[in-house]
Amino acid sequence: MTRWLAMFGLVLSLSGLGSALAVEPDEVLKDPRLEARARALSQDIRCLVCQNQSIDDSNASLARDLRVIVRERLVAGDSDERIMEFLVARYGDFVRLSPPMKPATYALWFGPAAILVAGAVAVGVFFSRRRRAPAAPEPLSADERRRLDALLDAQGDSRAKDGSA
Amino acid sequence: MDLRRLVYLVPLVAFIAIAGYFYLGLQRDSRKLPSVLIDQPVPSFALPPLFDDKPGLRTADLGGEVALVNVFASWCAPCRVEHPILIRLANNEKVPLYGINHKDRPEDAKRWLAELGDPYRRIGVDRDGRASIEWGVYGVPETFIIDRQGRIRYRHVGPIMPQDLDKVILPKLRELGR
Known about the structure:
heterodimer, A: mainly alpha, Helicase, Ruva Protein, domain 3, B: Glutaredoxin, 5-stranded mixed beta sheet, elongated
């Protein structure tokens, strides 16, 4: 357990180190609260050059430019939403690392949950049917009963004959 | 055949549908992003000139005619690849071509154009890359087609190769009435 915790801590500190290296000292804002907002916001903005990194992680020059723009706008008093809008207007929703909630993305947000629920319902129906099925076998009709008796009688006779031989 | 048995085919059909969708997705080049500025007016920007005898580039210079805006830099190798095609577009096809010199040293850009030829009617110098961000540029070269109303109608990411010119750029220009 302690080993796992140590491992987790190591991974966490390394990833923190990695992202701290991309933001260069001259970019950092003097106001620690604004800088914290800038870091949080940058972690949700995609670097369009590297695409699977945030601008907070990326050393690409466009990522640096966008980090600087985010900080300039924060200093100018823009809200986080306004800054996101500014970037989305130029680079599209793709610039956001977490997709926005809107009709076009409902399938993305609710699809997995919907498939899970549909699967649970299907499994439930399957098992409830299987349990009920063997509960009540149809009773034999009078005709079937007569045929069965005849067969059993015939077998009984042949056994008796074998025994006597 | 028992119709109720068909229900067991539902997972197979669903799998084929999803696999087909993903297969089509894999054929796309994920590095080429669609521009959100398509059909939008040219963003507002104003850039100083590169040469003393050739004006810079600003929003008001675009519109009134179908034109190309090309974002280039002397340090960009793919720009060198597409340069002969830009020259051909400007000389043979007489397409108005405007340049945004992206994050470049002016002396490097001048030397580059002196060596390879200058196909641009106007060149704006975007030293800090801010105007390029207004255009949603994320890599050089990028080329935009502007219509008569001054709206962005098409964006090409990466160098224009001969097949792009014949299959995409020229048909698009013709469609817009050039």
